[in-house]
Amino acid sequence: MSYKKDVFHLRSLLLALDEKEYESLIEDLHPADILDVIRQFKDDRVDILNRLPAWMIAYILDEADDKEKYELLSVLPRPRKKEIIGEMSSDELTDMVGSITPEEAKEIFTNMDSEDADELKELLTYNPETAGGIMAKEFLSVTENMTVEETLEYLRKEAPGAETTYYIYVLDENQRLKGVLSLRNLVISDLKARVSDIMHERVISVPVTMDQEEVGHLFEKYGFLTMPVVDDKDKMLGIITFDDVMNILREETTEDIYRLGGVQEGEKITGTVTESVKRRLPWLFINLLTAILASSTVSLFEGTIARVVTLATFMPIVAGMGGNTGTQTLTIIVRGLALGELTFENAKKVLLKEIGVGVSTGISIGVTVALLGFFWAGKPVFGLVIGLSMLLNMTAATLAGFLVPLILKKLHVDPALASAVFVTTVTDVLGFFFFLGLATVFISYLT
Amino acid sequence: MSYKKDVFHLRSLLLALDEKEYESLIEDLHPADILDVIRQFKDDRVDILNRLPAWMIAYILDEADDKEKYELLSVLPRPRKKEIIGEMSSDELTDMVGSITPEEAKEIFTNMDSEDADELKELLTYNPETAGGIMAKEFLSVTENMTVEETLEYLRKEAPGAETTYYIYVLDENQRLKGVLSLRNLVISDLKARVSDIMHERVISVPVTMDQEEVGHLFEKYGFLTMPVVDDKDKMLGIITFDDVMNILREETTEDIYRLGGVQEGEKITGTVTESVKRRLPWLFINLLTAILASSTVSLFEGTIARVVTLATFMPIVAGMGGNTGTQTLTIIVRGLALGELTFENAKKVLLKEIGVGVSTGISIGVTVALLGFFWAGKPVFGLVIGLSMLLNMTAATLAGFLVPLILKKLHVDPALASAVFVTTVTDVLGFFFFLGLATVFISYLT
What we know:
Chains A, B: Acts as a magnesium transporter. Two copies of one chain form a homodimer. By secondary structure, chain A is mainly α. Chain A folds into three domains: about 5-130, MgtE N-terminal domain-like (MgtE N-terminal fold), CATH 1.25.60.10; about 140-245, CBS-domain (Roll); about 275-445, Tetracycline Repressor, domain 2 (Orthogonal Bundle). Chain A is built from 23 helices and six strands. Chain A has helices at about 5-15, 20-30, 30-40, 45-50, 55-65, 65-75, 80-85, 90-100, 100-110, 115-125, 130-135, 150-160, 185, 195-200, 210-220, 240-260, 275-300, 300-305, 310-340, 345-375, 380-410, 420-440, 445; strands at about 140, 165-170, 175-180, 205, 225-230, 235-240. In chain A, the strands form two sheets. In chain A, strands 1-2-3 form a three-stranded mixed beta sheet. In chain A, strands 4-5-6 form a three-stranded mixed beta sheet. In chain A, a hairpin with a 5-residue loop joins strand 5 and strand 6 (about 235-240). The longest helix of chain A is centred in the C-terminal third of the chain and has 31 residues, at about 345-375. Chain A is elongated. The mean pLDDT of chain A is about 90. Chains A and B meet through helix 12, helix 13, helix 15, helix 16 and helix 17 of A and helix 12, helix 13, helix 15, helix 16 and helix 17 of B.
């Protein structure tokens, strides 16, 4: 099935179907598909939204980006707004309210009943990039002494409002987490059995302050559908579902890839020239400063270059190989930190490995370039100078590629920001210094 | 809870608890946690595995890497092996058998009953990186005219063997997909209702040949727990579950990040020096060839540099800014292709935007560097030459950053492989050519 064709077809169905067919269509549609239509046909969005039931719009807002949620909501008349807000889940409401102005937020609160408003206020107190900031309040809970039958009855009543029904949490009178039941277990158990007999007691939970990326790794490790969020007294505060986590992991990885490539997070591939220039230019100016640093190093040796111009010819090899070696190590280290595979515990072992790699590849490339330099310049000492400086620079490059992200991590700065700037500055400056410095020392053998 | 402390504690529990406590511990443990212990304490792994029930070992193998699965299985005695293979799910068996030698695979087949062996043979015929290669055969299916009560009964019997029980698929007599039931719906429906009344008819399915990365994007878009896999006649062949997809997305992203950084996929951060050198050296030699190309460009202009040595000083700025501009565009394009946001349809718009960005940032940086060159060299024409070549090179850099990955995509090569090599070769060679070429033309104004 062609997805593109589908959008056009779906648009006409959403606008033109008669009442009865429309209702059965809506029952069977996925909100993400309707959102595609709304995004692609901006002129039709009011007509499409006006026809949709409030519960479906709430689902669509679940799928939308944070800012888009409010944008879509604000085109609707006030009574509808209120109804939709009532249907939205607390985590999505939090994301939306976190992305709008205080005045806009105030309007949202006036459209909520006081219980929902209190929940929202609580969720807004957490750092948006922690477990508390991404959790929802709509979870199902029972007590230990209930029976399977009572639990199923409770489920029939409460299921429509819950984020997920696949796990039901068992809490004590102080809301402390005692166990978890899966819907699967419930369905295959005897109706008279007690919750305490069939529940799973070793519940893996997430502290409310945990960083969202770390939460993502726990989901990847355990393959859970949902995870409960608890405070430091093990009181259950909310749940996180895997679909939200998938989005977070995608965003975090895009951010890492962008930062490694010197692009600011949030740049859209289909944005305008002005937006992109605004985001990229600051980075280019930072890079310009570091390039000027490298140029200054070269300028120290202009006298040497004037006497042996072939040195200028070999400068791109020095800079290029140092940069590549540094980037290789940097990539491994940044990704290792992001995936939690590199820790401060195994850091020393990894450092020794990287230095070993720098020396080994430095010798291989150094000997090759030394031979090349010898034949190109016709002087053995020229080969020695370029070969030795390759070895020194490539070893320094692995060191820089290792140390820069770890130092940033210690300073609580995203290691991916290490990227091009710091590491290639080190390799450029040191590379030119080794190469042109050695050449200056041995200048009498080179002319 | 400290995860590190947990591993040590868990190891002693697994080895030392008495029979009864051990059994209740195992019921409550997550296989991923046991795998952590087995990985960390290699000397204890036979003892730990020997004590574990076969079903738990099968779950642990589910969590293990492809090659690790067979490694763990092979330390066990033959009768246990057979029992564990019988408990493993078909998708994990496929991954394992796909990663071992034909002789080892033959031994696995001798330990299987003929029905499971046929399933496995079928799964092995699919490309491992497509929907067919990652799906499992263990799904639950019912027919339209069954009642909710009959379905629940079927569920009680079949649930233990299924990959997931949260969705039950409705098939016709030719195994064609007609609808889907969620366990949630089933639980809240009347026991006498027919499946056809409560099923969801518009099932979103995945063609068996779809690339696994595209499957990943569908899961991200729809937030599904599982998706059915169908052939071109809509016959249901298997299911894919979200936890497998999360792993695939992580692997695909790591691969992209590694390739952008010039690192071969599969390099382990804690591997040996020899392994890393073997993987990185070929890439460094490819880069050396392209650096030699840049050096050759410079060597054409040795005569000019000999007369104006300050040109050598500015070379790092030309190369650096071109490389950074190209990398920014490359990053946006490669990630856009990976996330499906850049298509051949919107490519023209994005190309025009990138050229616009190249020209705009080129003018900003060009004017700055022109002024710098003017003051540094004390000659206005020097400023003009370096400024103009920055503008030309940065525009060319955005073009290269855009075109190289798209051309690779057209040639069915992973666009992330575009990385440093091709783009920075273009920016180095063109940058030096523009800069030193213009300097040669205007040489009389520079000396």
